[in-house]
Amino acid sequence: MRTPTMLLLLLAYATTAVVCLVGHRRLGAASFPLATLPHLATFTWLLVVGGDVLDGTPLVAEVTWVGPLELTLSLRLDGFGLLLGLLISGIGALVTVFSVGYFGARDERARIAGLLTLFAGAMLGLVWADGLLTLFIFWELTSIASFLLIGTDDRSATARAAALRALLVTGAGGLSLLAGLVLLGIDSGEWTLSGLIAADPAGGVVPAALVLVLVGTATKSAQFPFQFWLPGAMAAPTPVSAYLHSATMVKAGIVVVARLAPAFASVGPWRPIIVVCGVASILLGGVRSMRQQDAKLALAHGTVSQLGLIMVLVGLGTPATTYAGVAVLVAHALFKAAWFLSVGAVDHTTGTRDLRRLRGVRRVPLLATSVMLAAASMAAIPPTLGFVTKEAALEALLEGGIGWTGTVALIGVAIGSILTVAYTVRLAVGVLGDSTTADDPVDTDDQHHPGPTLLGPPLVLALLGLGGGLAAAPVGEALARIAAALDPASGEGALYLWHGLNPALGLSALALVGGTTLWWATRRTTATADAPRSASTVAYDRLYETLLSGSRRVTGVTQSGSLPLYLGIVLLSVATATGAALAVDRGLLDVGALPVANSPLEVAVCVATALSGIGVVLARQRFGAAIALGASGYLLALVFLLQGAPDLAITQFLVETVTIAVYVLVLARLPQRFSAAPAWAPLWVRIALSVAVGLSVAGFALHASGTRQEPSVAAEYIERSEPEAGGRNVVNVIIVDFRGFDTLGEITVLAIAGAGVVNLVAAARREQRRKHLEDGTDVEDLSGRAPEVWR
Amino acid sequence: MSVTQAGLLAVLVSVGTFLVLHRSLTRIILGIGMLGNAVNLLILTVGSTPGEVPIVGSSGADRMTDPVPQALVLTAIVIGLAVVAFLLSMAYRSWTIDGNDVVEDDLSDRRIAAEPDVTQDFGDET
């Protein structure tokens, strides 16, 4: 069904963003309340149309831009898009409410509100996009919004570097994604996701294209080996991190993988890449999270781990794993956003996020409830949504049937669950427990307590995580109808709070016991641990440094500063390219077909012209050179005449006369001989280069003169010359009539050049007169004397 | 285009290139003038074959040489004059300011060539 509503909503986001960014001085406190409006509108609309969409009638919207190039802005809202839209607008609304309290009266609030709104619109466009190129455009827009938001604190070098790193990594990944999508589009002839999935191309370039797509999705969703930008992105304000870097933007890669996996998961490299990168992210993120002292950073590394889990689930592409992936995605968005907002509230209240210094958070009841519920969901403790979805994930993986990749994924997820419990317990204890070790603890009792805008949003999200678990059956059913949009077979999935004693429950229990034990065993070593730089970061930084210094070095070698050398290189390239083409393809130059000369007189005139041209080089004095140039110009007029161009010959004759006059006027004031500046290259090199250029241009001309394919437009000009312009001389008619405006432009150039000449000469005159007055040198004496430097 | 004309073109372009590659501004201007002539010759000879003067009534249209390249070159000749005149007055100005008409090396380029290494601040690892 067609509807323009999606486009209107995106427009509403864009308008709100522009209003916030442009009017940031006036909006002030109104900016975040204003920014909630598009979120509320979108959320409400999605709830209204949700029933129809889940029944299997996707809504579509299309705006054609350049039809023949397949450049169409095409959106398509299916069940999966509905779910993501609800998450983006719902969490978006909560984050903006939270921001009202978090940013208070800070100056940059309107700017952040505008960028957040811009981002939300781009993200909605991304998850609703059906056109491959539409998808890419929104994908890049989210990268740019993320860059600007990470760099909010633009006076901090760390924040700037982190923003740049995130932009470069996700931007490079975006290009890889684009290349992959274009290859898929060309191969299948389908330029929409729905069409592409239906066409299900295989073989040929498809595996290579899929690898490119996976590289793109891995950068965006912070998957190994590109995970390193995400912890750095925590330089952004906490509400931004909660929204972009846990709940929404980092899910972009997962969205693309989820849409493509049912069709493409069985293609050669897909599952191995997904499983290896995903499991590596699960383990790395989990281990690194244990070693962070900053609660937000611990969460960020945990996000890498959780994203790895979702990526593995949706990437394996079986009906059961797809269903589980969608379920875990929802659970993760809820508990991770709740966690981030809680940490933001703690930070806002106490001024620190250091796990070693916090005291008394548990005595702020609403905050403590949010943290505990979010932690329970994250550690998959029953009866939260985190638990029931994790059960679904383990069950789907235990189903097997996809070879070694499924086994590796199961083992990875099982170990990952243990790690998840361990870092969650550590984080919860760190935030809620009273520090005993730090020298400078911060106690909430000494601080003002956070207001309702700071406490409400995380609590809502955390309670949703609990309610989703308690209402596992209806939630599971709704998710099944959503997952059916990705793979109809996923519509069979269901969530159970109690599923009997089965291996999945056993693994969950093992994770809880193992994780708690792991936390207990390592709680002292991790309290002092300092996270080392990750190998990926080191590799990235080294690459970046090498790129910068390498390009500078290349500049140093190629750009020596000598202008004649630059010119020489340019001309050499011209001569080499033309010469090589003529040398390789002998057919290009058919000299035999051309006349040696048009008339004997032509030979004589050409030789004379050439000789006087050479005379210009040989002349030792400026005057001699100028006169040789004039002679060659006059002789050239004869060549024109022989060609049948008397108008040209006359013009050349007149212009040459004027040119000589100008030369004489100027040269009379310059020294007689040329200055003996040191040459940039030996004489033979310069001569060889010049001859090479001359020969290649002549070769090109000989080739070009035999390649005319269409008749000249001259016939038309000749025919219309007398009846339309009343002139017989066709050249004159072209210049003053048919192409009169060209001539007007030419005259303008001439006038500007003339004005320039007059001014330059007048300025020089004034200066000489002043010099003359100052030190008594004779004005005329200056001419003819070689400069001190070169004498 | 005849081979003879191509030969003349080769000589004019070679001479112009050689002059342009000098450090003396005067020679460079002479070279630009020479290259201008050469290119005019190229356009005219490549674009048309010799024939009767393109004046209606003097001969039949099929025997006339093509007037279009002529119109193009005519404009180019005049622009060439403007360029040379402007460059010459710049050379003159340069001479009155620092007493020579030599094209100097680009200083900022030289600086980069002398110190190619840079160190960047990447901020703290997080």
Largest interface: A-B, 134 and 102 residues
CATH class of chain B, please?
Mainly Alpha
The strands making up the biggest β-sheet of chain A line up spatially as 1-2
From the N-terminal CA to the C-terminal CA of chain A, the straight-line distance is 86 Å
Helix content of chain B: 55-70%
Class from helix and strand fractions of chain A: mainly alpha
The count of strands of chain A amounts to 4
Strand content of chain B: under 5%
Number of helices of chain B: 4
On the 0-100 scale, what is the average pLDDT of chain B?
84
Fraction of residues in β-strands of chain A: under 5%
Give me the Rg of chain B, rounded. Answer: 24 Å
Estimated structural class of chain B = mainly alpha
Question: Overview of this structure, please?
Answer:
The complex is a heterodimer of chains A (791) and B (126). Chain A is mainly α. Chain A is built from 31 helices and four strands. Chain A has helices at 5-22, 24-27, 31-54, 79-103, 109-128, 132-150, 157-188, 193-199, 206-220, 229-232, 238-247, 252-264, 270-289, 295-316, 319-350, 365-378, 385-399, 404-432, 452-470, 472-483, 503-528, 535-558, 563-584, 600-618, 622-643, 646-667, 683-705, 714-725, 730-738, 740-775, 779-782; strands at residues 59-66, 71-77, 358-359, 442-443. The radius of gyration of chain A is 37 Å and the shape is elongated. The termini of chain A are far apart. Chain B has 126 residues and is mainly alpha-helical. Helix content of chain B is 64%, strand content 0%. Chain B has helices spanning 3-20, 25-47, 67-98, 107-114. In chain B, α1 (3-20) runs antiparallel to α2 and α2 runs antiparallel to α3. Chain B starts with a helix and ends in a 12-residue tail after the last helix.
What would you say about this model in short?
Chain A has 791 residues and is mainly alpha-helical.
